[in-house]
Amino acid sequence: MNGAxxxxxxxxxxxxxxxxxxxxxxxxxxxxxxxxxxxxxxxxDGIDLVLLDIRMPKMNGYDVCKIIREHKETYNLPVIVLTxxxxxxxxxxxxxxxxxxxxxxxxxxxxxxxxxxxxxxxYK
Length: 124
Known about the structure:
Layout: E1 4-8, H1 12-24, E2 28-32, H2 35-44, E3 49-52, H3 61-70, E4 79-83, H4 88-94, E5 101-104, H5 109-123
Parallel strand pairs: 1-2, 1-3, 3-4, 4-5
Helix pairs in contact: 2-3
């Protein structure tokens, strides 16, 4: 097992694609379909990396990331943002939040796998 990845995205198709992609690479994959579920999963289970969407119901990706960074035990947890809204504004809002990367949807699967491996290598 390569570690546990939490996918936080309200698009069920994207979640399933990512789940299959990373399970095929040997990762344990957890799913959350909004920010509130994502935060609960982070604190309920041992998560090694978060793939985070920005625009979601109940709690957006910015707020999820803020909560992750507010706690000592999750401050260094790697976060990669996957979004269809990869704008300068999004990059500015995440500046200083200690994220690994912002990757646009649709994403290149090989590139995403490389970024996850690199982030986990730095974290563990």
